[in-house]
Amino acid sequence: MILAVSDTGVGMDAETRAHLFEPFFTTKGVGEGTGLGLATVYGIVKQSGGHITAYSELGRGTTIKIYLPRVDAASELREAAPEPVVLRRGSETVLLVEDDEAVRELTCEVLEMHGYTVLAVADAGEAPRVLEGASRPIHLLVTDVVMPRLSGRELTERLRSLRPGLKVLYISGYAGTAVVHHGVLDPGTPFLQKPFTPDALLRSVRKVLDDGG
Question: What's the whole-model pTM score?
Answer without folding.
Answer: 0.64
